[in-house]
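A.,

Following up on our hallway conversation. Structure tokens first:
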């Protein structure tokens, strides 16, 4: 665990949305207790020099303002209610972070702040200086997004409780509530609340009312909070606050606190967090390699294990997508905050390997969403639909999980939901849109740009990948007719491929190509990218795409695509900062030049994944970019997860042991290399369980059955290994799905 540096990924320009948080969290925890260095936005950036305070909820690198709920901080002296008065400068020299722990010196006040967490509670220990009145402020109206309402109440002489109501991320209209209970380890001397109204569209704090026990915010233009303080001592004094949260009610927050933290002090909670993270991170053990690579790898693995987030309370209750309270059976959990469009590509395949039991509960959580809300969302947050991004990404995730052999979720209801999303328009008057333009897909087998104005090409490509995944799932479920129908739909992407210029491009409903198409123009039929970025996006059928190009032209085009001078947001070159072309480095495995994929992947790892604060490219998008790094550093990656094929590139460690868990039959999958993998990026030869392996891919069951994959590496390319047509991974149109 010493190799994990949570501050990696917290650097960069606050305006570009790239961020991760450095605070305390358990694996996939409900609580993410972390410092906030801004009043509205993403949470924390190393380049910002003031800490505003600390809040209990954060999402991991989602790219726009989000959460920051249940905000509090510590000060000395008179009570301050404006951010400008209670914020504090800090220094990275007096700051440290490790999994499950964060500490910093609040320089304005001379206070040391330490944070740790259980799954559903946070704990903060503030060490105050001598000869100063010690305050803990709860400016409950302060969030990172847009607070709609709040309530706070002081109970007795050790407790503050209440709720805050915030909008979904990116300031979407729907709101959710987070309830909290904060309990102190010693009685406070005095207390009070405050209430204020915004002035000039800004929160100017409020009027302090000493001795009052409750206050409320009822509109966006108000703010409120509570405080507690402790009398001056002639020596340092430490005050510890335990904070339980719940999305159900205050009673749930209290039960979470009592269940997970009531009998524990700060040290024991910190130690338990350390132990849990050690256990999770030890699912993959790497040997040798540079210290930098160890840090990059384990920090990426850590970031891959933060989301989706636990959602049910300690008593099993959770708020469903129907707005009602439900209870999950003992032994299972409900998860939320699925960044579907991002995580289906890399995080879901990684979790299938290292977290199979948890992934099954995540899959069932998606099923529950459908049962309670009526549809599968692309990007559900809390218990609400955001409909962010495009495609049917969680259908791909469910199909991948089941085809991987993870069957402990309701696949029959899941199939109903996935098939509905793939073929029908949602009923009007609901908070979901399904596959936009589905009627045009059913009529034309593509989305016409003159009828679907945003991302018509990219959405057609994404839908096609979902249909391919569902076709394979239908085969596994014995649904022959559905399998053929979905297979045919999976080929829809071809209708937008121009055989002359070899680009996917927008097309009108009458079949004509949109005029003036510029493949380097952002969003010209595409989503967060250009025609160049989506040029190889046929993950399920790359074999056909290579043939449609002609192998030589395909390799020349992709070589040009990766011939960028330095990493950047180019229209005509590979973009390592987003998921649009995240699979592109591996396409040479399909085109007879796998050594180029080995070369490109090593370059991306070296240039874009570092041990610096800006060492995660772009938004991590809830673990998507980090899990790409984990798999790539191991030397395996799945361009099309439901195909169950994992493309091979050169590992960066001489040995990696992946420990396997039920329901998989194997105990461990070991990856080894020849000496000095850091300086030998090219595969010369591969053996699988002692036998020569000429294919440039392995099947998922080769991993989960356990065994050994060995790479002989060299400093120059071997242009013959894995280069024959029969060595390429399977494609939808020329090979059946990989099965057990």
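Then the amino acids I'd put at each of the 740 positions:
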């Amino acid at each position: 665990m010493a190799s994990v540096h949570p501050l990696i990924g917290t650097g960069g320009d606050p305006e570009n949305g790239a961020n991760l948080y450095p605070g305390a969290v358990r694996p996939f925890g409900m609580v993410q207790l972390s410092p906030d260095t801004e009043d509205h936005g993403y949470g924390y950036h190393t380049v910002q020099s003031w800490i505003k305070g600390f809040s209990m909820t954060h999402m991991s690198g989602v790219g726009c303002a989000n959460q920051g709920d249940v905000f509090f901080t510590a000060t000395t002296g008179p009570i301050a209610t404006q951010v400008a008065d209670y914020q504090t400068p800090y220094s990275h020299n007096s700051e440290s972070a490790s999994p499950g722990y964060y500490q910093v010196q609040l320089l304005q006040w001379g206070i040391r702040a330490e944070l740790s967490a259980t799954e559903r509670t946070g704990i903060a220990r503030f060490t105050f200086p001598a000869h100063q009145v010690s305050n803990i402020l709860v400016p409950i109206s302060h969030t990172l997004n847009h607070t709609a309402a709040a309530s706070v109440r002081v109970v007795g002489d050790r407790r503050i409780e209440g709720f805050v109501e915030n909008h979904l991320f990116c300031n979407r209209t729907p709101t959710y509530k987070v309830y909290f209970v904060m309990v102190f380890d010693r009685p406070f001397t005095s207390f009070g609340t405050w209430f204020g109204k915004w002035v000039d569209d800004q929160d100017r704090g409020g009027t302090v009312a000493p001795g009052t026990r409750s206050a409320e915010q009822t509109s966006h233009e108000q703010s409120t909070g509570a405080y507690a303080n402790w009398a001056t001592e002639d020596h340092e004094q430490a005050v510890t606050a335990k904070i339980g949260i719940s999305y159900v009610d205050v009673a749930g927050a209290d039960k979470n606190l009592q269940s997970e933290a009531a009998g524990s002090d700060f040290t024991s909670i910190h130690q338990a967090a350390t132990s849990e993270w050690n256990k999770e991170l030890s699912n993959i053990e790497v040997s040798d390699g540079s210290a930098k690579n160890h840090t990059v790898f384990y920090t990426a693995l850590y970031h891959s294990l933060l989301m989706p987030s636990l959602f049910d309370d300690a008593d099993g209750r959770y708020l469903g997508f129907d707005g009602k309270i439900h209870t999950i059976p003992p032994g299972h959990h409900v998860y939320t905050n699925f960044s579907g469009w991002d995580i289906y590509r890399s995080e879901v395949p990684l979790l299938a390997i290292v977290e199979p039991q948890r992934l099954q509960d995540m899959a069932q959580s998606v099923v529950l969403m459908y049962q309670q809300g009526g549809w599968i969302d692309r990007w559900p947050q809390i218990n609400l639909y955001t409909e962010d991004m495009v495609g049917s990404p969680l259908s791909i995730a469910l199909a991948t999980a089941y085809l991987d052999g993870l069957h402990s979720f309701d696949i029959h209801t899941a199939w109903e939901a996935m098939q509905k999303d793939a073929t029908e328009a949602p009923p009007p008057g609901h908070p979901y849109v399904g596959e936009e333009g589905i009627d045009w897909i059913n009529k034309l087998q593509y989305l016409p740009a003159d009828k679907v104005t945003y991302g018509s090409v990219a959405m057609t490509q994404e839908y096609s990948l979902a249909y391919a995944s569902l076709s394979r799932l239908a085969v596994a479920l014995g649904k022959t007719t559905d399998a053929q129908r979905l297979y045919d739909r999976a080929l829809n992407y071809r209708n937008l491929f121009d055989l002359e210029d070899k680009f996917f491009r927008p097309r009108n409903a009458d079949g004509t190509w949109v005029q003036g198409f510029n493949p380097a123009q952002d969003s010209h039929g595409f989503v967060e990218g250009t025609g160049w970025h989506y040029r190889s996006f046929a993950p399920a059928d790359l074999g056909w795409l290579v043939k449609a190009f002609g192998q030589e032209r395909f390799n020349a085009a992709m070589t040009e695509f990766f011939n960028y001078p330095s990493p950047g947001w180019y229209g005509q070159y590979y973009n390592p900062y987003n998921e649009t072309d995240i699979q592109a480095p591996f396409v040479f495995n399909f085109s007879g030049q796998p050594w180029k994929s080995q070369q490109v992947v090593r370059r991306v790892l070296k240039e874009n994944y570092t041990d610096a604060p800006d060492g995660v490219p772009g938004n991590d998008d809830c673990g998507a970019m980090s899990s790409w790094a984990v798999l790539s550093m191991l030397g395996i990656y799945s361009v099309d997860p439901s195909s169950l094929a994992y493309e091979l590139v050169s590992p960066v460690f001489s040995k990696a042991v992946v420990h396997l868990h039920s329901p998989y039959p194997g105990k461990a999958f070991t990856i080894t290399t020849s000496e000095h993998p850091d300086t030998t990026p090219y595969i010369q030869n591969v053996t699988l369980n002692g036998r020569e392996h000429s294919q440039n891919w392995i099947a998922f069951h080769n991993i989960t059955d356990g065994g050994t994959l060995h790479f002989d590496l060299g400093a120059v390319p071997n242009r013959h290994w894995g280069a024959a047509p029969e060595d390429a991974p399977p494609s939808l149109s020329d090979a059946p799905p990989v099965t057990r």
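The domain at 14-279 is CATH 2.70.98.10 (Beta-galactosidase; Chain A, domain 5). Curious whether your intuition agrees with the design.

B.
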